[in-house]
TrEMBL record:
This is CdaR family protein. InterPro entries: c-di-AMP_regulator (IPR053154), YbbR (IPR012505).
């Protein structure tokens, strides 16, 4: 049936006239641009939430604010809407408190660095209430925390800071809550000494960051010494225990006088040597003992872990030296110590026969240590010095009379 209509010339002419009318009306119909024109003329409003910066003098600080942000409502044309966010990045909201003293103040908020083409904007709120306090400053200690460990075979030495404290300033309450200022040094994988710049953070006694204070300086330089973890340490034998009755120790020799340790820098090693206890309990003849080398706190390893200690044992002997004079040692420039009674003591010593039997009175010195006395003291303990491996078995008098007066 459709084919019959399409072959009908009358129908096709009528359809062509209808289509022509529709096209004409579409081209010549009046267009209403009222909505678009009105939008461009009245503008579009955008809201931006910005922090409030309070400008104060050098001697006061802001201890509290009624609010920390304000809203700026900006009206602009729809054509400028796309570029507005970028232009608003440089805008600041400022409340000027310069020249004002301590107390509560109501300040007007001003928008500065607004885009030149923005003439229409409002602030909500337009004022801010602030509490101003006199600025206080205190010196606080620096605590450096260590992260990580040096590379294998290396150890961390003593850190050297270019300053030991920093100044913390602000309102009284937050400044007083700062217990220390911390920084972190990462030594992970380090193989050589380096100087690092360390940022500092004020914290309270619980380790929480304290806000609203200023620190000066905000960072410090820290020298981080890294050295080989294998350090040479001298071994110092120390006799413990007592040999069998009638015998004495006359010498101890180690087959190694040094060992290599890991974990402690050379600056932390004892200058007198690492003490190696040698237990001589019950020995009645010269013996060689396998003695473990103890680790000091901070040491991770020591090589060798033990040494052979040869302990020389011989029969003991006991001798008494009578009327050994007591002298004054270690006199100071500020005091004068005298012994009014010119005292003497009888000293009984015991030790290896080869040493004791060869001793004379000159090998025994009895004395009082003046460095341990103070003005007004009237009595002092008697000390006795004897040769190595010899000990004092008895002393006829443990204390003597002294006079301690101001020198000069």
């Amino acid at each position: 049936m459709m084919d019959r209509f399409l072959r009908n010339n009358v129908f096709l002419r009528i359809l062509a006239i209808v289509l022509a009318c529709i096209i004409w009306l579409g081209v010549h119909a009046p267009q209403d641009n009222t909505s678009s024109s009105q939008s461009q003329s009245t503008g579009v409003t955008q809201a931006y939430h910005l922090p409030i910066h309070v400008q104060v003098g050098d001697d006061v600080v802001v201890s509290s604010m009624s609010q920390s942000t304000a809203t700026i409502n900006v009206t602009t044309s729809i054509l400028n809407l796309a570029s507005l966010p970028a232009e608003m990045l440089k805008v600041q909201l400022v409340a000027n408190a310069q020249g004002l003293g301590s107390g509560t103040q109501v300040l007007h908020i001003a928008a500065v660095d607004m885009p030149n083409d923005i003439k229409n904007y409002t602030l909500q709120p337009s004022t801010v209430t602030v509490a101003l306090e006199k600025k206080v400053s205190q010196a606080k200690p620096i605590d450096i925390e260590i992260n990580g460990t040096p590379a294998t075979g290396y150890a961390l030495g003593q850190l050297v800071l270019n300053t030991q404290s920093v100044s913390v300033s602000g309102a009284k309450a937050p400044v007083q809550s700062v217990s220390r200022v911390v920084g972190t040094v990462d030594v992970s994988g380090m193989k050589s000494t380096d100087t690092k710049i360390v940022d500092l953070t004020p914290v309270d006694s619980h380790g929480n960051t304290v806000q609203d204070v200023d620190i000066s300086p905000t960072s410090i330089s820290v020298n981080v010494p890294i050295q080989s973890s294998d350090q040479k340490v001298t071994l110092a034998p120390k006799v413990t225990g007592i040999p069998a009755p009638g015998y004495a120790v006359s010498g101890v020799n180690l087959d190694n006088e040094q060992a290599s340790e890991s974990g402690l820098p050379s600056s932390s090693l004892p200058k007198t040597g690492l003490v190696v206890p040698v237990d001589v309990s019950g020995l009645s003849k010269t013996s060689t003992l396998d003695v473990p080398i103890p680790l000091m706190q901070g040491m991770t390893q020591i090589t060798p872990s033990s040494v052979a200690a040869t302990v020389t044992i011989e029969p003991s002997s006991t001798v008494t030296f009578n009327q050994v004079p007591v002298r004054v040692r270690n006199a100071t420039s500020g005091t004068k110590v005298t012994l009014p009674d010119n005292p003497t003591v009888d000293v009984t010593v015991t030790g290896p026969k080869s040493i004791v039997n060869g001793m004379t009175a000159a090998d025994v010195e009895a004395f009082v240590d003046a460095s341990k006395l103070k003005l007004g003291d009237t009595s002092a303990t008697v000390a006795v010095q004897v040769p190595q491996w010899v000990s004092v078995a008895d002393l006829s008098q443990r204390a003597v009379n002294v006079q301690v007066v101001q020198n000069g």
